[in-house]
Amino acid sequence: MKKQVFEGLSSAEIDEINAEMSHYEDKMAVSIEALKIVQKYRRWVSDECLIAVAELLEISPTQLEAVATFYNLIYRQPVGKTIIHYCNSVTCWMLGSDQVQECLCRHLNVELGEMSADGEYTILPIVCLGACDHAPVVMVGDELRLDITEDAVNEILGR
Amino acid sequence: MEKMDKPLTKNIRPDRAFATLADYESTGGYQGLRKAITELSPKEVQQWVKDSGLRGRGGAGFGTGLKWSLVPMDANVLQTRYLVANADEMEPGAFKDRLLLEQDPHQLIEGMIIAAYAIQAKIAYIFMRGEYHLAAKRVENALQEARTEGYLGEHILNSEFNLQIYLHTSAGRYICGEETALLNALEGKRATPRAKPPFPLVSGLWGKPTVVNNVETLCNVPHILQNGVEWYQGLGRGSDQGTKLFGASGRLKYPGLWELPMGTPIREIIEEHAGGMRDGYKLRGFLPGGASTDFLLPEHLDVLMDYEAVAKAGSRLGTGTLIVLDDKTCPVQMVLNLEQFFAQESCGWCTPCRDGLPWTVTLLKDIIAGKGRIEDLDTLAGLTRMLGPGNTFCALAPGAMEPLQSALKYFREDFERYIVGSHAVMESS
Amino acid sequence: MVRIEIDGQSYDVQDGENLLSACLSLGLDLPYFCWHPALGSAGACRQCAVIQYKDAEDRRGRLVMACMTPVADAMRISLDAEQARQFRSDNIELLMTNHPHDCPVCEEGGECHLQDMTVMTGHTFRRYRGLKRTHNNQNLGPFINHEMNRCIACYRCVRFYDDYAGGKDLQVFGVHNNVYFGRFEDGALESEFSGNLVEVCPTGVFTDKTFSAHYARKWDLQSAPSICVHCGLGCNIAPGERYGELRRVINRYNGEVNGYFLCDRGRFGYGFVNSPERIRKPQLKGYPDITVDTAESYFRNLLKASKPAIGIGSPRAPLEANFALRMLVGEENFFLGLEDTEHALLNAIVEMMLDGGIHSPSLREVEQADAVLILGEDVTHSAPRLALSLRQAARNASFELAGSLHILPWQDAAVRNLDKHVSSPVFIASVCATRLDDAAANTYRGSPEDIARLGFAIAHSLDESAPAPAALGDTEQLLAAAIADSLKQAKRPLIVSGTGCSSLAVIQAAYNVAKALPSINKQLVFTVPECNSLGLAIMGGRPLSQAFERIGNGLADSMIILENDLYRRAPSRNVDLFLQLADHVIVIDSLENKTTEHAELVLPTSTFAESEGTLVNNEGRAQRYFPVYPETESVRGSWQWLTIVMEDCQWRHHDQLTAACASAFPDLADIIQAAPGAGYTVKGSKIPRQPHRYSGRTAMHANANVSEPGQPHDIETPFAFSMEGDMAQIPPVLLPVIWTPGWNSNQAINKFQQETGGHLRGGDAGIRLIEASGTLPWFRDIPAEFIPTPGRWRIMPLPHIFGSEELSLHSPSLLERLPDFCILLNPLDAETLGVDTGDQVEISSLAGTWVLKVPVRIELTLPPGLLGITAGLPAFQSMKSWAQVTLRKVEQQVQL
Ligand SMILES: Cc1cc2nc3c(=O)[nH]c(=O)nc-3n(C[C@H](O)[C@H](O)[C@H](O)COP(=O)(O)O)c2cc1C
Ligand code: SF4
Ligand code: FES
Questions:
Q1: Spatial CB neighbours of C312, under 8 Å, sequence gap ≥ 6
Q2: Cross-chain Cβ contact A65/C175 below 8 Å
Q3: Could you name the CATH architecture of C793-889?
Q4: What value does the CA radius of gyration of chain A take, rounded to a whole number of Å?
Q5: Is A94 a member of any domain?
């Protein structure tokens, strides 16, 4: 892979972050949104991006990192184009989330958290997705998928 | 016309298409708001909600009207007051708020406007967990509709009342649902809980008086205003008022979510609405209100689902979403799964939770792996006391201990079976 | 006061306190981690659990965290209840699940709060069988070690570093039991107060890296009460020695001065004591090896032979040494050794303090100010510990607002949540950006003249009879009015100024502002550059230039220079000439420097660590320091060198000298009360400098001498170089080391305070010499606006915590933190010169006497026409403050 040269945040990112600022009493408050905006464009938050966001919010990179590393959905390492979150909380676990995970990882030949060779997918566990009546469930990108079976996994991964 | 017995879900259609503003208005939507703003003072709205007996649906069951009435309404130095809708729903086994958010977002918005009016907040936030993408989209849409229609913004319904509602989507962490941690998260900080006192009602978001209410709680409000206190009180079957979204998940025939009167017997939910256990499975127990409630047993099936009755049976109503344990699932492993969740979601602030939960997990894993010792059960029981209410900084760890302590009580032989006969026991005896 | 019942006993405690603090104030043992008297309560560690009962009938009670529970009248609690004890022990057990138990190799061992608390709770047996989580450590620079595996996640480090001290580069990362306290990336901690982490951290995560290099257990260190010599604030320190080497410096609590904290210069600047540049033997030009006796008689003979010698005193030498010199050479031959400007500034400050009628506050009082004007100082660099206090002062409005919301001051997070809404205004007028600006309500940048003008304008705004500057710009006018308004409303307004920008006008303007303030509780504090600048100035004497004249005029032909490198005081050319003109130059000093190089006779003197003396800090507080360990054979205290050669000297002992000094100067009369004299004993014996457990005494010199050498005697102070004696009865101010059974860390201090965070029992160390009296007329000498001369720049020395102080520059760890060697220029000036950051410029004096090549850094906030340099940095020694220079870009040679 070609090493990406960092040139600061894009104007789209900056605009979106600035727009969020008007909702809050101070700049610090948009830290999480800002990181998510960066992720929307770049999938994950590199050190360079983190530093750039911190500058925009007038806080130190250390302070922003404290926030970034607290939250589960902020990725400080590269992730695939689509993240497949499988729920491993209690009901899904009872109804087979271990198999779902095993099946996903086997299909993509990856370990948990690893990016698939083609850069398309990363499989991550997630806590209860609020669809326990349709366990087991996964979230493919932004989309919630219910009542997951091996066939459903095949269909999601398109094979 | 409004389906009088299911106010919360009356707009929810079987095909799961969501209610637009027009849909919402056609069943009486925004009438409660109109009444509140044009006919009642903020104090009166607080009183109505107090009288209705509505209790918080976020888990703790605090009186909603009472909560509002504790907000200092004098012209405080800090002027602003805030309202926050808690849409963080992350407790394993809880899946009620998502439905309300996705299917009928205006109901929440109307509830929020009324609540904001009652405490005279000018800015409100919806704090939504980051994984609820569809809900976020629909709520954002609905907010736009409401702004366009003049339900939000300046001079709402030609009154002097102004309100902005912003949607904040979080980045994942169960602790964000705890109301003071939520405030830190909204301020863009690490979501560690805050000490109480001061209560958010006095000093919350950016130090200003703040009310945090659960989504479902707020969704009740428009109906109370629209149909009156007496009507609302007539809805409950037990000692509590109104209806509630009850859910059930696990190896049931028809797991699902239903709006039922407060005080509906558990048996009715599990056997009628959820159709009973799947073929070949028997009921061994259940967590009545999500992952942080104590196990109950089949003998408790006739307990009514209201705050008092469930508490008397030794558990909590919590979120009102039941998680069912069947006879082929190992309760020890189930508890391990729960404790892993809690250990992982501990914010890391206070010692008992941060270090006690991982130890709990280690012990349970050891036991399951045949490396347990009989005294480990005492250690576990000790941990459930150690991490009990009041001992930790917030209610996460005490919640985490509820399923464990009840499992140790009800399923002790399952724990012992792993230990007895294992190598570890021989060594230690 | 409210009455509470603890385990059946009644106690009166301070209303509004939290229970933990109340218990500790009562002398009870209750373990804790996250609470800190200066940081308030966090409720995180859950270690301070007690049982609270509803009423007399309640037998079960409920567990509460003492630190989070306000005391209330008739409250009933128990520390002893089994349930509480069990909880506290179990809590430690949990903390220990991840702790590596590496005490034997841990530098905290023996003064570890975690060890103490573990023992206190009785947790002795490990049930946990799992793995321990491990972390990677970071390189945090030359001062601080990082060993994250020892962390118990009490959050104190970040609460001190970020919240209290305003640092931005230390935080907590991660969640659950994987929390990590560190920096975004490896690198030196940026805060000037990072060293406090060593003491704030209750275990061995953050330890003193300079100490590691020559580590000894706390109980093996010999200590004595001491005073920091690295700036004019006089923070109290506890230095520790072993094997004749100063091993470290830690904080010594003084409830009025430094409280719990030191700055990094004070903590890590001690390296000079062990420096290879230390002068250990007398040196006589042309005689390689002379004995002390020879040196002494040579010195004596010189005094006899020559015309009257002149004596040059020192602001870094104690009163007694300066006094002895003054007595030796006679008043008319005594010079303070200060360059003219500094001399004038210090005289002005002394005059204002003595006769100005305005209270000069201690640091504790500074923290209570509710509006602050800083005129011309970058306090973080000139008087660092003061900056930390001013940062706290900015929060007073939050505490007040919190009070109105019934939030108690120790409810730390809740009060901090209000910080952004209100702050007690701090206004900073400085030459360029300062490290305290983030706490400021408003800042102003200008030349010293412009700062002074702003000050005069503020004074005039406050009181019309005060003179107003002519032709002040509108912006300045408005700013002055706004600042005046804020100050006027304050109940306890504070004006801070000092010698930092070398301008008399600034100091006078500061006085005018203070004088013009209506409040009766107003305060005025000046920073002074060195540890005894104020004492020296109170003593009085002539400036250095007059010494030069006297030698030049042939009125004297020899001079005695006391602990003073004249090359730091005056341009090298003048000093060279001066030293050449004198027939005999005798220098008494501890470190080699350019002045000692030129001396005929160099007499080795002890540093603060090996001698005693009295210093007067900027507040006007006289404080005594005591030798930590005996000096090596050929080294003597300066006062000893000076008195021994006096004819019929009546002052054979230090106490006598102190007393003589006190009676010679009415303003110094009280210095004898600064500390008890050598005759002071506890139950008939001297105070041991070595802890009970001091190990190896009989063997530690066995490599040199198989028989145990006798302990050296100390006849000058109440302390003994030994471990014999009763520690229990010693008044806190004389305790060499803070220790009490069960409390081995510095946190034992709570056992010696009247109440936690309060004054020491028996009074805080030192004695205030000056109380406000009199009044001075308005100062009317208002400078004109500074207008840069095109093509010329004025040299503006800017103090730096790690570059400007003479002694600490000999400390290896500090050298790693020196500011970059560069000059600062305003961007417009840089543009004119066609230079950018990193380019070299050539600086030439107008007379063309010297040329220097230096890299440039552009500083947005520096006013045009000024050329900023690090004050006191030897590389800039040729540059005289305020001198005009020309600049030229050095064209980079193209590298082939
Ligand atoms: C660990 C923890 C997680 C919580 N999560 C949620 C949540 O996701 N949603 C919610 O409404 N309340 C949650 N709560 C309860 C809230 O703290 C708070 O009591 C509630 O939002 C108040 O709303 P109500 O009065 O309307 O119930 C949680 C509490 C704890 C201790
Ligand atoms: S119980 Fe303690 S560590 Fe756990 S989530 Fe609450 S505050 Fe955080
Ligand atoms: S000292 Fe009380 S909880 Fe930490």
A1: C325, C335, C336, C337, C544, C547, C559, C560, C561, C562, C564, C566
A2: no
A3: Beta Barrel (2.40)
A4: 18
A5: yes
Of residues B168, B190, B257, nearest to A67 (C-beta): B190
- CB contacts under 8 A, A 2-41 vs B, are 23-26, 28-33, 35-36
pLDDT tens string B17-72: 889 999 999 999 999 999 999 999 999 999 999 999 999 999 889 999 999 999 99
Domain that holds residue B322: 245-326
Between the CA of C470 and the centroid of ligand 3 the distance, in Å, is: 58
Residue C89 structure tokens: 């022990």
The answer to whether B168 faces chain A, any CB pair under 8 Å, is: yes
Contact at CB, C95 and B355, closer than 8 angstroms = yes
> Is pLDDT of B427 > 50?
no
Residues facing residue C411 across a β-bridge: C41
When the candidates are 3.40.50.2300, 1.10.10.60, 3.10.20.740, 3.60.15.10, the CATH number that belongs to C2-96 is 3.10.20.740
The residues facing C688 across adjacent strands are: C720
CB-CB contact of C855 with C834 (8 Å): no
More confident call, B403 vs C304: B403
Report how far residue C622's alpha carbon sits from residue C169's, in angstroms, rounded to the nearest whole number. 37
Expressed in angstroms, the distance from the first to the final Cα of chain A is: 25
The predicted pLDDT at position B424 comes to: 46
Question: Which residues does chain C have within 8 Å of residue B349's beta carbon, measured at their own beta carbons?
Answer: 44, 155
Strand positions, DSSP E, C449-547: 493-498, 523-527
Q: What is the pLDDT of residue C571?
A: 87
Cα end-to-end distance, chain B, whole Å: 71
Q: Helix, strand, coil % (nearest 5) of chain A?
A: 45, 10, 40
**Same-domain status, A64 and A90:** no
The alpha carbon of C291 is separated from its chain's Cα centroid by a whole number of angstroms, namely 37
Q: For residue B90, what are the CA distances in angstroms to B130, B132, B175, B324, B429?
A: 10, 10, 9, 18, 43
User: Residue C171: is its pLDDT beyond 80?
Assistant: yes
CA–CA separation, C156 vs C168, rounded Å? 15
Residue A58's domain is classified under what CATH number?
1.10.10
The token pair at A5 is 């040269």
- Note the helical H segments in C15-106: 19-25, 82-96
Cα–Cα distance, B105 to B124 (Å, whole number)? 15
On chain C, the residues whose CB falls within 8 A of the CB of B366 are 129-130
Q: Is the model's pLDDT at C262 over the cut of 50?
A: yes
User: B168-224, pLDDT tens digit by residue?
Assistant: 999 999 999 999 999 999 999 999 999 999 999 999 999 999 999 999 999 999 999
Residue B347 CA to ligand 2 center (angstroms) comes to 5
What is the DSSP-derived secondary structure letter of residue B348? S
Q: How confident is the model at residue B426 (pLDDT cuts 50, 70, 90)?
A: very low
What lines the ligand 3 site, CB under 6 Å? Answer: C 20, 32-35, 43-48, 65, 67
Structural tokens at position C660: 């003589």
Return the exposure string of C646-675: e unless at least 16 CB atoms fall within 10 Å of the residue's CB, then b: eeeeebebbbbbbbbbbeebebbeebbebb
Mutate to test the pocket of ligand 3, among C24, C29, C34, C94 (most ligand atoms within 8 A of CB): C34
Nearest CA-CA distance, residue B245 and chain C, Å: 32
Q: Does C857 touch chain A (CB under 8 A)?
A: no
Q: Count Cα atoms within 13 angstroms, Cβ side, for C97.
A: 27
- Name residues whose C-beta falls within 8 Å of residue B95's C-beta, 6 or more positions apart in sequence: A128, A130, A131, A132, A133, B89, B247, B249, B257, B321
Q: How many domains does chain A have?
A: 2
User: B314 by DSSP, 3-state: which?
Assistant: coil
Nearest to A98 by CA among A145, A131, A135, A141: A135
